[in-house]
Amino acid sequence: MSATDSTLLRPRLLGRTTVNAVVLLSVLYTLLPVLWLVLASSKDRDALFSSDLLSLSDFSFGQNLSDLFAMDGGLYGRWYLNSLLYAVLGAGIGALVSVACGYAFDKYRFRHKEKLFGLVLAAVMVPQTVLALPLYLMASRTGLVNTFWAVFIPVLFNPFGVYLGRIFSQGYVPDEVLEAARMDGAGELTAYVRVALRMLGPGLVTVFLFQLTAIWNNFFLPMVMLSDQDLYPVSLGLYQWNSSASVSPEYYPVVITGSLLAVLPLILAFILLQRFWRGGLTAGAVK
Amino acid sequence: MTATTRSPVPATARPTAAPASDRRARKAARRRQLAACGVLMTPFFALLVTVFLIPVGTAVYLSFYSDDQPGLGFGPERSVFVGLRSYAAVLTDPTFLGGLGTVAVYCLIYIPLMVAGALVLALLLDSGAVRLRAWAQLGLFLPHAVPGIIAALIWLYLYTPGISPIIDLFAGADITVDFLGVHTVIPSIVNIALWSNLGYNMVVFYAALQAVPREVIEASVVDGAGPVRTALQVKTPLVRASIVMVAMFTLIWALQLFTEPVLLSQSSPMINSRFSPSMYIYDAAFTRNNYSLAAAASVVLLLCTIALSYGVTRWTGRADAQEVR
User: Fold this and answer.
1) Number of CB pairs < 8 Å for A and B?
2) A111-128, pLDDT tens digit by residue?
3) What φ, ψ does residue B81 adopt, rounded to 5°?
4) CA-CA distance, B147 to A266, in Å (whole number)?
5) Which of A58, A145, A124, A35 is nearest to B302 (CA)?
6) Would the CB atoms of B145 and A98 count as touching at under 8 Å?
7) In sequence order, what are the residues at sequence separation of 6 or more whose Cβ sits closer than 8 angstroms to the Cβ of residue A71?
8) pLDDT per position as a tens digit, B17-38
């Protein structure tokens, strides 16, 4: 009896160990580069190249930080604010616009609705690089090129948010609730703002986070549109500094410290809003 | 095609035999709903028209016309219809075809690795055998919060001799690795993309697996299926919709390959300015100022994306049909 038990148990134990080992290795794979970034940001230039990462004898994070904000007349702080403005404002407005449209797709019926929705889905597939040249030409014709708006307006467009908004509206806003609001004499838009939008909260946060990440990551569009360094987002700025680093190595520690700081807002947003987007992802994945 | 010209009908109103006053009231309600629907949809469709439809139309238009500037760019600019000349130029350009080839190789390595890796991790986490599951998930997901350009920066440094602890580690074992050599540069880019997106897709799969009814899994265990068979033959088919979605988005993003190679090109002679189709488009438009060539390349890339996405849905659709049979 005990013999059969142990032969049954052994492969299971072995399996359990293997499973945990695989997961542990994967976690190390994802975490170690971030850890490297944290350690490297505390090294000065010489220590960075001497590759003794773990020694704390030459801890110069504070020095790197003050170098970072002093470099090129404090450009980095400027880029950081630009990124926050593009991302937080853009994702906020973009999420409201997309979710409102998704909600209308779910709750109202009209001719050619599914064809129109198909167009929205098709827009998800179109590569950004395809749109960049025409957008650049349009912006230069209207005098918007190399301004805040040249980057801000295109990033508001989020067709995937409409798709998610429609799914969330199906899942979270029962038709009966709207019917009840109508019976109470509420207008259509009042019902949306006062009743539906509140129920769509978690969905709205999910769309907001998706778009926040996308805009914070945005690199191609600013690269095409902007030539004024004062308008750069962090991503483009760091790219520019990194290209200078091969000529003037004093940029290396600044680029590394700047990268670390640029990662923080998204991590913060994901942790603070975790409760919402986990639910949101499930809805997006199952339907 | 503005939102207000459409005629919304309330989803909840059912036509029944009713007196005329009722019908009038319903008509008024329908009109109010139509107006509300228009208000809710107008901002998005205004954006759709300005930053999507017009640009796509412009790209197609530009690809058929060429700006001929007489006399060193002085004098009036005129657009000349050149038909398919730009397309012929793009499709016979070895650097563009090389870029397409690069992206094809990249997709063939990246997409299977990504889908299989994320799915295996999600299945392992779902199996219940993993300790500290929430922490493992958070750790795996972390790179998603790292912007693409910074992920590329981190890995660029990890690929750079002198800075990289990885290369030092290999050097300690007397192995010299060049992560940015002829044969390693594409796998190195695959690694960056994989690192960035593995955890995110794992979370998508995990969420789908959590929605699989527990009875189904219990039934398969009762039938004597081991954990591996349960995972591969019971759970995996049930999350096929998510697999298709992840494969599709991974494909669309992979075809746009731009950020990683552009950054690596600062340090590697193996990556030229026309390494991928997107880099080719950027180079044609903003370095060579050849708009019609860039537009034609854009349209070709767009058509490839549409064709491949359609292929993915068709292929999975056929798999669906076979399963029913």
Assistant:
1) 284
2) 888 899 999 988 988 888
3) -70, 125
4) 9
5) A124
6) no
7) A241, A251, A254
8) 556 788 888 888 888 888 889 8
Give the Cα separation of A234 and A239 in Å (integer).
8
User: Look-up: residue for tokens 């969905």?
Assistant: A203
For residue B168, give every residue at least 6 positions away whose Cβ sits within 8 Å of its Cβ, in sequence order, or none. A51
* Residue whose C-alpha is closest to residue B115's, from B289, B236, B238: B236
Instruction: Using pLDDT thresholds of 50, 70 and 90, give the confidence band for residue B319.
Output: low
Residues in A touching B150 (Cβ below 8 Å): 235, 238, 259, 262-263
Is the pLDDT at B1 greater than 50? The verdict is no
Q: What's A34's DSSP letter?
A: H
Is there a contact between A157 and B39 if contact means CB atoms under 8 Å apart? no
Residue B149 main-chain phi, psi, to 5 deg: -70, -30
Which residue's entry shows tokens 């290369």? B167
Q: Chain A: nearest CA to B83, how far in angstroms?
A: 19
> What b/e string do you get for A209-243 counting C-beta neighbours within 10 Å, with b at 16 or more?
bbbbbbbbbbbbbbbbbbeeeebbbbbbbbbbbbe
- Alpha carbon dihedral B247, B253, B255, B258, in 10-degree steps, equals -150
Residues of chain A with pLDDT below 70 are 1-14, 46-47, 49-58, 277-287
Distance between CA A98 and CA A210 in Å, rounded?
A: 12
Cα–Cα distance for residue pair A83/A77, rounded to 1 Å: 10
Restricting to A residues 91-150, those with a Cβ less than 8 Å away from any Cβ of B are 97-98, 100-101, 103-105, 107-112, 119-120, 123-138
Q: Other CB atoms closer than 10 Å to residue A57's CB: what's the count?
A: 6
ipTM here = 0.84
For tokens 């690929």, the residue is: B159
Distance CA A54, CA B40 (A): 55
Sign, CA torsion A31/A32/A37/A43: positive
Q: CA-CA distance, B2 to A208, in Å (whole number)?
A: 26
Going by their DSSP bridges, the two strands B9-10 and A108-109 should be labelled as: antiparallel
Tally of CB atoms within 10 A around A101: 29
Torsion of CA B259, B254, A287, A175, to 10 degrees: 50
Distance in angstroms (rounded) separating the CA atoms of residues B107 and B112: 8
Chain A residues touching B276 at Cβ < 8 A: none
Angle at B152 between CA B148 and CA B153, to 5 degrees: 115
From the centroid of its chain, how far is CA A227?
24
